[in-house]
Amino acid sequence: MLEIERPTTWVALTGFMGVGKSRIGRELARELMLHFIDLDRYIERETGLSIPDIFRHLGEGTFRQLEAEAVAELTHKDFLVLSLGGGTFVNAENRERLLRRGPVVSLWASPETIHERVSRRPGQRPILENTDPTETKDMATLAFERIQKLLLEREGIYRQATIHVSTDGRRVPDVVDEIIEKLWDYADEAED
What we know:
The protein is of the alpha/beta class. Helices cover 53% and strands 11% of the residues. It is built from eight helices and five strands. It is globular, with a radius of gyration of 17 Å.
């Protein structure tokens, strides 16, 4: 049997929405010859509902429960790159389970970069939708302010990840190369 040399057989990607977890995760899985699962797409396949529809019709609480169940299931898999939703790692139980399972890579980008990226697909980020009918600011300003606020709230949590990599102004292959290099360092340290 052919033995493939890789630093790990399981890794999760966390970070705020729009940092590139799905795109980078696919490429990382290809480079490491592992399976790739985007947690949000997995939940959509399992439920038959889109994430915005789950938020809209069943509520964020139901979505977070589905997310926790999926994390519990997928941390038992092997040969996997798992791209998490932006809020998955915020849940303490999810975070503990993921960190116990293997390395978690936190991807980072500036609020400006995130806003520019998520603005390309309006309506796909329920957490950024305006729920205050008295608010008079335009949607773009509100979304940017919400991104800044949530990033600040979550920064300390994302800092608990095993590895940290910036995606700002970088090509996907360069980010993937840096992740793989840091995963090798992580594997070497784990052996010592």
